[in-house]
Amino acid sequence: MKRNKLLTLLIGVCLVLALVALPLMTACAPEGEEEEEEEEEEEEEEEEEEEWEVVEIGFLQPITGPVGTHGVNNMQGMELYIKHLEEDGGFYVGGEGPYTIELVSFDTRYDPKLAVTGATMMVERGIKIIWGPLGTAGCVAASDVTWPSGCLQTNYATDHTLKHANLPNQFQSDTLEERAIYHADKNSNARSVLAYPVPRGCQLTIL
């Protein structure tokens, strides 16, 4: 009889302990499951995250040599632009993207022969847009490579050689400098001429 009472008491204690432990186990389990679910969701988001497409742009300018500082400034400006572009989520073309830009640089040292070498390397690499070179001689020399390939070239030529050649792949960016040179040449007393864009054209200041 005593043995039966003892067994009954033992079973009762076990049931009480089980009932006490059950809420604790139930409270702990979801937290671990939630962490696992969050980790799985993060992994899925990383897998679903769009991969960036890279557009290579040729940077064909002097980084060393007599006007190397000018080329370095241009490169730093472009790198800063790319940084801001990526922070804004890149750019899209026809609904496809996101795209970012990678500069492929070649130091021309302000030498037309090196401009041809760099342009050839970039065209063979499959680059479709070249920024440079600096100076008319380098731009004209490089155009012999970029024009047949259809590669777009933004140049800094101050001479009208490329403009008169009517090459549709050439984009001359030094029109303001041309105007400044013209007015400085016509004004014998001018020490310098500042040219800068305004909303309705170009503002010239003769010093």
UniProtKB/TrEMBL annotation:
InterPro entries, per database record: BCAA_transport, Leu-bd, Peripla_BP_I
Keyword Signal found: yes
Transmembrane region(s): none
Keyword Signal (UniProt): yes
Keywords from the named record: Signal
Region (Disordered): 30-50
Pfam families registered for this protein in UniProt: Peripla_BP_6 (PF13458)
Biased composition regions of type Acidic residues, renumbered to the chain: 31-50
Protein name: Leucine-binding protein domain-containing protein
The species this protein was found in: marine sediment metagenome
Taxonomic path: unclassified sequences, metagenomes, ecological metagenomes
